[in-house]
């Protein structure tokens, strides 16, 4: 039995084949068998997901779900802080943004949720 790829949109492992297509029963995404299943449609990079598993894209707005200490400062980014117009970048801290009152900074996607 062949190993089926995970869904490129939501990462679900419950994909199945339908003729020449793969189908995800959880999010309804369909893609061709010749397409790269582990890459995002835009940049060929792995998709970035928030703490709830929602796919994030450039320009989205997110909310911080945990108090985050700002490195090199005694300041804290509080729970519920809304961050607008994020930009996705590679690396450990995969969100580049500008937070009012703090300025530009990088966040990990595991500490935010999509608005």
Summary, kept brief:
With 115 residues, the chain is mainly beta. The protein is 0% helix and 32% strand.
Characterization of this structure:
The protein is mostly beta strands and 115 residues long. It has 2 domains: 1-37, N-terminal domain of TfIIb; 61-114, Roll (SH3 type barrels). The chain is built from no helices and 13 strands. It has strands spanning 16-18, 21-23, 30-32, 48-49, 55-56, 62-64, 68-69, 76-77, 82-83, 87-88, 95-99, 103-107, 112-114. The chain has a 3-stranded antiparallel β-sheet, with no helix packed on it. A 3-stranded antiparallel β-sheet has the order 9-6-13, with no helix packed on it. Strands 10-11-12 form a 3-stranded antiparallel β-sheet, with no helix packed on it. InterPro entries: YjdM (IPR004624), YjdM_C (IPR013988), YjdM_N (IPR013987). Belongs to the YjdM family.
């Amino acid at each position: 039995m062949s190993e089926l790829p995970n869904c490129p949109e939501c990462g679900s492992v419950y994909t199945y084949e339908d003729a020449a297509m793969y189908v995800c029963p959880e999010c309804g995404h369909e893609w061709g068998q010749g397409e790269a299943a582990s890459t995002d449609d835009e940049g060929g990079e792995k998709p970035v997901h928030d703490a709830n598993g929602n796919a994030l894209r450039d320009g989205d707005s997110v909310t911080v779900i945990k108090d985050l200490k700002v490195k090199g400062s005694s300041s804290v980014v509080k729970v519920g802080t809304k961050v607008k117009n994020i930009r996705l970048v590679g690396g450990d801290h995969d969100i580049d943004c500008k937070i009012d009152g703090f300025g530009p900074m990088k966040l990990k996607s595991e500490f935010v949720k999509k608005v």
